[in-house]
Amino acid sequence: MGSFSLHASCLAKHNLPWSNGCSQNLNSLRIPALRGPGFLSRKASKILAFYGLKSPPYALDALEPYMSKRLLETHWGEHHHGYVEGLNKQLEKNDILYSYTLDELVKVTYNNGNPLPEFNNAAQVWNHDFFWESMQPGGGGMPELGLLQQIEKDFGSFTNFKEKFIEASLSLFGSGWVWLVLKRQEKRLEVVKTSNAVNPIAWDDIPLMSLDTWEHAYYQDYKHDRGKYVNAFMNHLVSWHVVTARIIRAEAFVNLGEPKIPVA
Amino acid sequence: MALRTIVSRKTLAALGSGLRAEARLAASRGLVTFSLPDLPYDYGALEPAISAEIMQLHHQKHHQTYVTNYNKALEQLEDAMAKGDALAVVKLQSAIKFNGGGHINHSIFWKNLSPIREGGGEPPKGSLGWAIDTDLGSMEALVQRMNAEGAALQGSGWVWLGLDKDFKKLVVETTANQDPLVTKGANLVPLIGIDVWEHAYYLQYKNVKPDYLKNIWKVINWKYASEVYEKECH
């Protein structure tokens, strides 16, 4: 999630956790010069960015008419972009946090429910990367095979799951996200609502698909009508292919049951 | 705090025939329902600070939905209480807080705004003006502080200028979602509330919340705020 680019000259300026807080050690390490002379000099250029704005895996007009190009330009180009810039600005000032991956950063800054100031930006960058990838042009329809079986096992039927998801989206008060998650401990699928930027990876569950229910996610196209937006998402946008890929990966970490090996 | 709601009593005659005995009993006891208050100005009267499109949607759709759902939740509460269903009563609290809060907050908000030709944006004279200078430094400082807190608020919520009626001091507070100002202190009286939910500005300002906050002061109705202040602080 997000690209990680570290301008190496910052090594000279900042105290890294393993360096005993003493930059003298680094200068004596004989790190080979990756650029011209004076590479590690303290006058070297400042950090440019830690995270980049990842593009959705489709053109901005590809989700029309269910999610307009105009909405995506604002949602991705302004909101998501703003979170990335905000996060980069915060990380410039914080030595410890920039050594984490985005996943780790979200969990660490969540701080068990007492979030640090960087959490909002970090989590929203993660959340939006995940959300764009949860959709596709020509999405909607139904999942198949193993994923469908798992949904039927945990919700009774696909229709039941869909109703639960829609109900959760409509009853979420304020800003937030609705998720289909794989609960790691309980080893089952569940529909989960979170507020603002909160994300189920914070308590170690595995998200499979999400819907942004912040008003900025639908207002330009659907105005106050969140119900219409949710239906458009379920019927035309959600990418069951991606959810399938995600649950396949999740099964490497969560044992969802014995494989059905036919007896000879 | 003057909360101008138009209430009506449901009569037995208005109820359909398919009601359960408990609901009929509740109605005969007089379940008070709420309805959407009228705006004291046209939808377009606050232009260009707030567009007519936003005002109409905000009033007719968002506020109306809070009223409708508040009434529904109160009916369900009445039911649950009559049946002695403790769990159901507790489960309804978040819907009541959210929808009831939404109704209360928006009812104040419409009175916090007024068209420029009717005095919108004119700073307060008299005791509220002095109190702002004494408690918060200056009008500029107040505006800057409320704008900063409003811009920094994550998610949905409100930013308030309130009066602590015990200490007779002005305070600036924020609340999340539709929490009324009293959730930050039982002795707090709301004078000015600014809605920073995205629906309050999105169609006009998109993600540039600071511009909305800068412009809304041009239509803030300080007359109403002064009235409330003087009533509490005479």
Explain this structure:
- The complex is a heterodimer of chains A (264) and B (234).
- Chain A has 264 residues and is mainly alpha-helical.
- Chain A has two domains: 21-133, Helix Hairpins (Orthogonal Bundle), CATH 1.10.287.990; 145-250, 3-Layer(bab) Sandwich (minor pseudopilin epsh fold).
- Chain A contains ten helices and three strands.
- In chain A, strands 2-1-3 form a three-stranded antiparallel beta sheet, sandwiched between helices.
- In chain A, helix 4 crosses helix 5 (119-133) and helix 7 (158-171) runs antiparallel to helix 9.
- By secondary structure, chain B is an alpha+beta fold.
- Chain B has helices spanning 21-29, 52-83, 86-91, 93-112, 126-136, 139-152, 202-205, 209-216, 222-233; strands at residues 6-9, 32-35, 157-164, 169-176, 188-195.
- In chain B, the strands form two sheets. Chain B has a three-stranded antiparallel beta sheet. In chain B, strands 1-2 form a two-stranded antiparallel ribbon.
- Chain B is globular, with a radius of gyration of 19 Å.
- Chain A binds chain B through residues 74, 78-79, 82, 120, 173-176, 195-197, 214-216, 219-220, 223-224, and chain B through 57, 61-62, 65, 94, 98, 154-157, 176-178, 197-199, 202-203, 206-207.
